[in-house]
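RECORD TYPE: inverse folding
INPUT: structure tokens
STRUCTURE:
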């Protein structure tokens, strides 16, 4: 079974992404992360949803629309250090918990998210 299936398919991935961006939008602690994003988050929500479906082993919606993700290159316009990485991961950790992803699966996903988020760092300073 793929992580995509374990999570519960598209409706659950969508719920996770919605919660992730709702938290980013609402929680003052995530403001430095929110400020990097466009004022309207609908495009970001769609893109992360499409991307995560494929990243989790499900349908390749993102690649079908945009081709190779080139994720690190796409993040170069944003200054990402340890601070932004850890805020992103904290926001995702809360979203996983709040949409009720089972603890074992959430821990495994969090570890993979760490690797992807750490790879996105493009600033030396924290
Ligand atoms: C390390 C901390 C991260 C920061 C600060 C960050 C920030 C951002 C920002 C500001 C955007 C632009 C939003 C937009 O154009 O609507 C973006 C786009 C995106 N991010 Fe991240 N991100 C991080 C990590 C990640 C991770 C770990 C993933 C995937 C697991 C991810 C997936 C994406 C995707 C798929 C897009 C859309 C790319 C596009 O097609 O333009 N990001 N990110």
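DESIGNED SEQUENCE:
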């Amino acid at each position: 079974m793929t992580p995509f299936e374990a999570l519960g398919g598209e409706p659950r991935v969508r719920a996770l992404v919605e919660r992730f961006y709702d938290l980013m939008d609402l929680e003052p602690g995530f403001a430095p992360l929110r400020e990097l994003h466009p004022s309207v988050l609908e495009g970001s929500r769609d893109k992360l949803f499409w991307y995560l479906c494929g990243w989790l082993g499900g349908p390749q919606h993102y690649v079908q629309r945009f081709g190779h993700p080139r994720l690190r290159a796409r993040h170069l316009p944003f200054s990402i250090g340890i601070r932004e990485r850890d805020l992103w991961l904290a926001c995702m950790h809360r979203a996983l918990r709040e949409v009720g992803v089972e603890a074992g699966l959430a821990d495994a996903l969090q570890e993979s998210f760490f690797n992807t988020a750490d790879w996105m760092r493009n600033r030396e300073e924290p």
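NOTES: The pocket of protoporphyrin IX containing FE is lined by residues 33, 36-38, 43-44, 47-48, 51, 55, 66, 71, 74-75, 78, 80, 84-85, 88, 113, 116-117, 120 (CB under 6 Å).
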